[in-house]
Design a protein that fits this description.
The complex is a heterotetramer of chains A (377), B (160), C (362) and D (151).
Chain B (H helix, E strand, L loop, with lengths): L1 H28 L26 E4 L6 E2 L6 H5 L5 E9 L5 E11 L8 H5 L5 E4 L13 E3 L6 E2 L6
Parallel strand pairs in B: 2-7
Antiparallel strand pairs in B: 1-5, 3-4, 4-6
Chain C lengths: L8 H14 L2 H38 L15 H11 L10 H19 L16 H9 L2 H11 L3 H32 L4 H7 L5 H4 L1 H18 L11 H4 L9 H26 L12 H9 L2 H20 L7 H29 L4
Helix pairs in contact in C: 1-2, 2-3, 2-12, 3-12, 4-5, 4-6, 4-12, 6-7, 7-10, 7-15, 10-12, 10-15, 12-14
Chain D lengths: L2 H11 L4 E4 L4 E5 L4 H10 L7 E9 L4 E8 L6 E7 L7 E3 L8 H12 L2 E3 L31
The chains are: A mainly alpha (377), B alpha+beta (160), C mainly alpha (362), D alpha/beta (151).
């Protein structure tokens, strides 16, 4: 047998060759304009080299020319699925620099909105994950439920996706009178729909076979590559900033940091599904107790940060989002750096997908939950 | 023998999970009245946007064709994208003083990101967010709008 | 002309005799060929369009949507509009494609489907080919299509296409085995490979009832393997939209793409029609033992209606698979065949032989 | 370790560096030559064990270029900032730390792309976002008359 193999491998006529395939920039599974140079041997993935920058928009450069409230609205456009968390990061950073204490009401509103956007993001991730694996129906069920959250956003913030709801020192509007009722209705509704997600996908034997044992990322590698968020926590890397460096109303609520030590695609999937349950319980704890008070602190017309360096980390739906502001005392920052979760997560892909099949590469990419503007910035 | 039983068991368990999945989709198939599709152009009349929805910047005018804009330019400063341009002019008030008033409040809808900062900053509440969302036009130049209506003037008693 | 909705043999016989009397034998045979060919072409085109429309509506209903609603009443003319659009599209060919094979591939695929459809008995007298090796012929010609797919993948000089075609080849070759073996199980039961005989034997009870356990197992296996053979549902690896963009027909456009598309749906019809004929009694009405009045009422429904009702049920089930399950991976698809379906099938044949020997059937 | 303990630890371990308490984190400024060895020691040492590099940013300080590393220890849950400045502004270069934290490999590529800081011994130093031949947009003297509109 081995002799035949030898002959086949050495023969000129039957020489095998590696395949170099460009996945993207236009490819159904890259969810945006990401190009991956994939080296294949038949179906097996030998190496992946991500090429990014197709929608690099120079947000960091733009930020150097505009004022702080205006920076907030640009962060919407980075990780558009966690737009509210990104907004909040900048707002918190400015508040920290100016040592402004925001009212409790603001903290509560921000935390509820955070969790709602986390839910919306995870719902979109879930339906897209199903679609990547070929179960097209999940896409519509996920979006159906997400619409309800977007309606809540629209009623209170005025926009569905790029909400721009935060301002330094508070939020832009008070919550809408219907807000609490709508959120409670949604939580009740979504608690009935979440088990359906499990029935449709999580329990499915094909799905479990497709995902378990695929895309192993060891805890040490997760830290080394800086893979945060649900992807990192599925590798046992305890990186939930809501727990470790609580901000807004997170110190007041009880919730579990979901950790999984299986480190594979299924673990990353289940961490996100469990996080949805946690988010629901956080909203439950907060929604009835929103304290009365002001929805924003009165700030100066032109906000100037004191000279210095300020860093704020928040936990978005994809992982750790950091805002690093270097101020020289003017109304524009001297330098702004956004530490985006997708950037670090993307480059762990090669480590995870090497040696698996093309179909697994798609599944692994799905569970990393990449948003390309977040990577390109 | 044990592995054989596991083999048979795995078949039945697998089929069972598949059937559970089919139950979910089947349930929706046989309850078509729960469909969530909205027939968009047909349901235009029922479509009411939320009052805070940010569709475009508009300037409110009362029945006498008067607005609240003083032409101070704060919205122009606050706009991150430069989508607002204020063109003001000087007039002589009846009591003989020179006064700057708004000539044209130009709004580039195509550049606007609907961040609401201009509305938030406006000291007199002259501009608000409108709920219209069907902005598609054939020519890009149509997206540049003049918000104050022709012949309109500032309402009496608005503080500068 | 003696037209009878319950039996088409009079009609076909009258046409045959009429043609023979008016023309020379050669002319008459040629004309018959033309008539039959046109009838099949028309049927396939119309049924294909209907199937595409049905698929879109069914999948919409599974997904809580409405599906096409704009063209015609409830979007009935949507697929016709799509077809016209496809006809008007420019035919694009990659510069380095193998011209001859690239153009040949869609025809091979669609011809294979046409060949297979010839043996399907729609109703009494409505079957153009009825030989004694009908099932054998069907399994033989239905696997010709894979050659077309392999050619398409190879000749379009596209990496995605080639991967898709190779997947499709591996998949269809494996699942051909399961389709044949599950049909073989029923041949053991029926004792014949002729479609008309098989249908006739189910006059009392359909095979899926009279053959009980082994027949049901064979039916399930046939459904799974059949879905895999049509490259549909959870087995659509050859197209695998999220992995290979469009798989083997990535580089095809216009009418050539339409051929692949149509062939896929005809294959769906063929698999359903074979399942109907072999397991669900073909055009035979539903009869229950001694419920005389019920049986009589069932007899009023014409056989052709029975046939298409059953076909639609099977098609619906296959569509249900497609719109519920995630796609399998290429190694899992082979595992499923060689480690699960094949052993089950072999044991099942043995079981069926025992059932037939002991006459433990209805 | 608390910030005070960390300051004490860092001043004793790295006597030739400058350690201050910034607005939030302990900030340590090292010279160009020490940069790599200090970073390595910060990661390897049991007491500090800064194993997680959560942000790496390049800054143009008008007279020279700087790189700022934000480090965290997963074991001890303390964080610090490591700063370094290059000597040259036009052709700045630094030792890479991508052999210490893998994630730095891509952050360094980004810094190289946007600020033009060269990292010695980096295995794969190419532009990340922009085309070859593009300027370094995050430098303060970058001009682009077409795309940058001054207000």
């Amino acid at each position: 047998m081995s002799e035949i193999r030898e002959i086949i491998l050495n023969s000129d006529r039957l020489a095998t060759d590696e395949y170099l395939v460009n996945m993207g920039p236009q490819h159904p599974s890259t969810h945006g304009v990401l190009r991956m140079l994939v080296r294949l041997e038949g179906e097996k993935v030998l190496n992946i080299e991500p090429h990014i920058g197709y929608i690099h928009s120079g947000i960091e450069k733009m930020c150097e020319a505009i004022s702080y409230p205006q920076i907030i609205h640009l962060t919407d456009r980075m990780d558009y699925l966690s737009a509210h968390m990104n907004n909040e990061a900048v707002a918190l950073c400015v508040e920290k620099a100016l040592q402004v204490e925001v009212p409790d009401r603001v903290n509560y509103i921000r935390t509820i909105m955070d969790e709602l956007s986390r839910l919306a993001s995870h719902q979109l991730w879930w339906c897209v994950m199903g679609m990547d694996l070929g179960a097209l129906t999940t896409f519509f069920y996920g979006l159906r439920d997400r619409e309800k959250i977007l309606d809540i956003f629209e009623e209170t913030c005025g926009a569905r996706l790029t909400v721009n709801y935060n301002l330094p020192g508070g939020v832009m509007f008070d919550i809408h009178p219907n807000f609490q009722k709508r959120v409670k209705d949604f939580v009740k509704y979504f608690r009935t729909k979440l088990p359906e997600y499990d029935q449709l996908l999580s329990g499915n034997v094909i799905f479990r076979e497709r995902t378990s044992g695929i895309g192993y990322l060891s805890p040490a590698d997760a830290i080394e590559y800086g893979v945060t968020g649900p992807s990192g926590r599925a590798s046992g890397f305890s990186c939930d900033l809501r727990k470790h460096q609580p901000y807004s109303a997170y110190p007041l609520v009880k919730f579990n940091e979901i950790l999984d030590h299986r480190c594979d695609t299924l673990a990353r999937y289940e961490v996100r599904i469990k996080e949805m349950y946690e988010s629901l319980s956080i909203i439950d704890q907060l929604i009835d107790n929103i304290p009365e008070g002001e929805y924003a602190v009165k700030m100066k017309g032109v906000i100037k940060l004191p000279e210095g360096e300020f860093f704020q980390r928040v936990e978005t739906a994809r992982g750790e989002f950091g805002v690093f502001v270097i101020s020289d005392g003017k109304k524009n920052p001297y330098r702004v750096k956004f530490r985006s979760p997708g950037f670090s997560n993307l480059f762990a892909l090669n480590k995870m997908a090497k040696g698996h099949k093309i179909a697994d590469l798609v599944a692994i990419m799905s569970t990393l939950d990449l948003v390309i503007p977040d990577i390109d910035r | 023998m044990k592995s054989f039983i596991e083999y048979i068991g795995s078949i039945f368990k697998g089929i069972w999970t598949l059937l559970i999945g089919m139950k979910v989709t089947g349930k929706y198939f046989f309850t078509p009245w729960k469909n969530v599709t909205q027939q968009y152009p047909e349901n235009r009349d029922q479509l009411v946007m939320f009052e805070r929805f940010r569709g475009e910047v508009i300037m409110t005018h009362n029945e006498n064709n008067e607005h609240l804009c003083t032409g101070c330019g704060i919205c122009e400063i606050n706009c991150p994208n430069g989508s607002i341009e204020i063109i003001s002019k000087s007039i002589l008030t009846p009591d003989g003083k020179k006064k700057r008033i708004i000539d044209q409040h130009i709004y580039h809808l195509g550049m606007c990101t609907f961040c609401n900062l201009c509305v938030k900053a406006c000291p007199t509440g002259a501009i608000v967010m409108g709920q219209k969302f069907e902005h598609a036009v054939w020519d890009r130049s149509l997206l540049t709008k003049v918000l104050n209506q022709p012949g309109s003037k500032i309402e009496e008693g608005v503080k500068e | 002309m003696a037209f009878n909705i319950y039996d088409f043999s009079n009609l076909t016989h009258t046409i045959h005799v009429g043609l023979q009397e008016s023309f020379s034998p050669f002319m008459a045979t040629t004309l018959e060929w033309v008539i039959v060919g046109t009838a099949y072409l028309l049927f396939v085109a119309l049924f294909g369009l209907l199937l595409v429309y049905a698929e879109r509506k069914v999948c919409a209903a599974f997904q809580q949507r409405l599906g096409p609603m704009r063209v015609g009443y409830w979007g009935l003319l949507q697929t016709i509009a799509d077809f016209i659009k496809l006809l008007m599209k420019e035919l694009i060919m990659p510069r380095k494609a193998d011209r001859f094979l690239y153009n040949l591939a869609p025809f091979i695929v669609i011809i294979a489907s046409f060949l297979a459809i010839a043996v399907i008995p729609f109703a009494p007298g409505l079957q153009s080919l009825d030989f004694d090796i009908g099932i054998f012929y069907l399994t033989a010609v239905s696997s010709v299509g894979v050659i077309g797919i392999l050619l398409a993948g190879w000749s379009s000089n596209n990496k995605y296409s080639l991967i898709g075609a190779m997947r499709s080849g591996a998949q269809i070759l494996s699942y051909e085995l399961s389709v044949s073996l599950s049909l073989l199980t029923m041949i053991v039961f029926a004792g014949s490979m002729q479609f008309s005989t098989i249908v006739e034997q189910q006059r009392g009870a359909w095979f899926i009832f009279s053959g009980h356990v082994p027949a049901i197992i064979a039916f399930i296996v046939f459904l799974i393997a059949g879905t895999a053979e049509t490259n549909r549902g959870p087995f659509d690896l050859a197209e695998a939209e999220s992995e290979l963009t469009a798989g083997f027909h990535t580089e095809y456009s216009g009418i050539k793409f339409a051929f692949f598309f149509l062939a896929e749906y005809i294959n769906l019809f063929i698999i359903s029609a074979v399942a109907t004929t072999v397991f669900l009694g073909g055009w035979m009405p539903l009869h229950f033992g001694n419920l005389e009045s019920f049986n009589h009422a069932m007899d009023f429904i014409p056989p052709i209606v029975w046939f298409f009702m059953k076909v639609w049920v099977v098609i619906f089930i296959i569509m249900w698979f497609k719109w519920t399950f995630p796609r399998l991976r290429v190694d899992q698809i082979l595992t499923l065949e060689w480690k699960y379906l094949l052993p089950i099938n072999l044991v099942n044949i043995l079981l069926m032989a025992l059932v037939v020997l002991t006459k433990f059937h209805f | 370790m608390t910030n005070e303990e960390l300051i004490a630890y860092l001043t004793t371990s790295f006597p030739q560096t400058e350690v201050i308490l910034g607005s939030q984190y302990v900030e340590m400024t090292v010279s160009e030559a020490q940069y790599h060895s200090v970073a390595l020691q910060l990661k390897e040492s049991k007491d500090s064990s800064f194993d997680y590099l959560f942000c790496l940013s390049g800054v143009d300080y008008a007279e020279n270029m700087g790189v700022i590393c934000h480090l965290e220890s997963i074991k001890h849950r303390h964080a610090m900032v490591l700063k370094v400045r290059t000597a040259d502004r036009i052709n700045p270069s630094l030792d890479t730390i991508s052999d210490i934290w893998i994630t730095a490999k891509y952050h360094e590529r980004e810094i190289f792309d946007l600020l033009g800081i060269k990292f010695n011994n980096h295995t794969d130093l190419r532009r990340l976002f922009l085309e070859d031949g593009w300027g370094f947009p995050l430098r303060k003297d970058y001009v682009d008359e077409i795309r940058i509109v001054e207000r």
